[in-house]
Design a protein that fits this description.
The protein has one domain: Glycerol-3-phosphate (1)-acyltransferase. The protein is 40% helix and 16% strand. The protein is built from seven helices and seven strands; from the N terminus they run αββαβαβαβαββαα. The chain has a seven-stranded mixed beta sheet, sandwiched between helices. Helix 3 links the parallel strand 3 and strand 4. The chain is globular, with a radius of gyration of 18 Å. The mean pLDDT is 89.
Length: 239
């Protein structure tokens, strides 16, 4: 078992640097840590979701290895299931009724690992995004309270431009911005319901604040904010 875990970590490390190298060729990435990351404990990394490129992008740029909670559809094919397992990802149902997935997440958090979550439940843009205050999956706050582990909020912008094939071959690389915020810890002195609601409210505010801080720090335009894949493909070239 120990040999298998070592092999998975080695594969994750190699994949991390390979992905980082690929994205380096096509993207100019700006990463900002607006708060200190928790030390000596597991925690939840919660991010907005604007493209299919987000998990590998965030995973390759974050300071620690991330075990992603992944939709169960990716585990129905043997090849993709083997890849997900090799990358230490684990499946969870989109409707949040999968207790096995939650138990796996809690176990990994207790082991001191980082569990990655996209609380929007899918790719979102505009009014459907947490960046605009849209509701999110309540399971992320429940996971924090249940495990007693903090949440590190993250906002990623720009990866949706990779849906346009032309942007993979530009002389001037596509810009991507990532912001990591101050960790949000569960209140153990409150009833669980109140603690979950407080986490949910704090996380929602953190997403909006992180987006605004990235916009201000880098002078981002409206076109730099999330769009649907269809809108990105119709975008004037170069943007």
């Amino acid at each position: 078992m120990q040999t298998e875990q070592i092999a998975r970590r080695l594969f994750s490390r190699l994949s991390r640097w390979l992905v980082r190298g690929i994205f380096f060729l096509v993207c100019r990435t700006k990463v900002v840590y607006f708060g200190k990351l928790p030390i000596g404990t597991g925690y939840i990394l919660a991010s907005n979701h604007i493209s299919h490129f987000d998990p590998p992008f965030l995973g390759s740029r974050f300071r620690r290895y991330v075990d992603w909670m992944t939709m169960e559809e990716l585990f129905r094919n043997r090849a993709s299931a083997a890849l997900m397992e090799a990358l230490c990802a684990f499946k969870v149902r989109r409707d949040g009724t999968d207790r096995t997935g939650i138990r796996t997440a809690v176990k990994r958090l207790e082991q001191g690992r980082v569990v990655g979550v996209f609380p929007e439940g899918g790719i979102r843009a505009g009014n459907g995004s947490v960046l605009e205050g849209a509701p999110m999956w309540p399971g992320v706050s429940a996971l924090s309270v249940l495990s007693g582990k903090p949440i590190v909020p993250s906002v990623i912008l720009g990866t949706d431009r990779l849906y346009d094939p032309r942007n993979w071959f530009r002389i001037r690389r596509v810009a991507v911005w990532i912001g990591f915020g101050e960790s949000i810890s569960p209140r153990c002195d409150l009833p669980k319901k109140d603690a979950r609601e407080l986490i949910q409210k704090s996380l929602s505010e953190a997403f909006i604040c992180l987006k605004e801080r990235l916009v201000l720090q880098f002078g981002l335009a409206e076109t730099d904010l999330p769009m649907t894949p269809q809108a990105r493909r119709r975008e004037k070239y170069p943007p």
